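Lab notebook, bench 4. Still working through the backlog of constructs that have no structural model yet. Next entry is a single chain of 192 residues. Request: give me the C-alpha cells for it.
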Amino acid sequence: MICVLFTDIVNYTELAQKYDDIIIFQLLNNLYISFDKIIKKYSHLQKIETIGDAYMVVGDIFRNTINHNLVINEIMSFAKDIIKEVKTIKTPDNIPLCIRVGINIGSVSIGILGNELPRLCVVGNAVNMAARLQSTAEIDTIQISSDVYEQLENIETDKKYEFVIKENVFLKNMGSVTTYNISPPLNCSSGQ
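Model written out:
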C-alpha cells in the first residue's frame, strides 16, 4: 500500500504555445526546484519523476514498518504546500500558475525499468488512479480517492480537512467513482 500524488499545470498546452521553449523550460525548472525544496521537509515522501508538466511523488517506498498515518499526513500537507507555492511562480505576463493534484493509495510495483538511462519506476493501478484523479481535479484543488478518504477518516491527522464529495466522477479507463476534494479551493487568477 503506497500513497501516490500527481500534479500538473493547468493550461500547460496553451502556455507552451504562447511562450518559447526556453521560457517554458525556465518556468518548469523554477516550479520543480521549489517543489524539490518543499519535499525535503517530509521524510516519508519521495519524488519519483517529472514528466513534462507532471510531478510525481510517492509515500515511503523505503519503509520498514506500516506507517500510513505519517505518510498520509505528509502527502496531504505537501499537496497544500505546493498549491500555495505555485502561486509564487509567475509567467512572463505576471500571471500565477495553477495546478491540479490527485492522490491515491494502493498496491504498486517498484523497480528499475530498462537499461538505457535506467531509473526507479512505480507502476500499477494505484498510480493510474492518482493520475486520473489529478486530471479531473478542479483548479488548485486536491482530489483524493475514496481509499485515501477512508484512511483519513480512521487516522489521527495533524490537520482538519473539509471535503466536498463528488459523485460519478468519470475517470478514463476506470469508470465513474466517488472522489473527495479539499475545500475551499484556492482561487486562481482569471485568464488561467
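Notes after review: The first helix runs from residue 12 to 18. The chain is about 35% helix and 30% strand. Flag for follow-up if needed.
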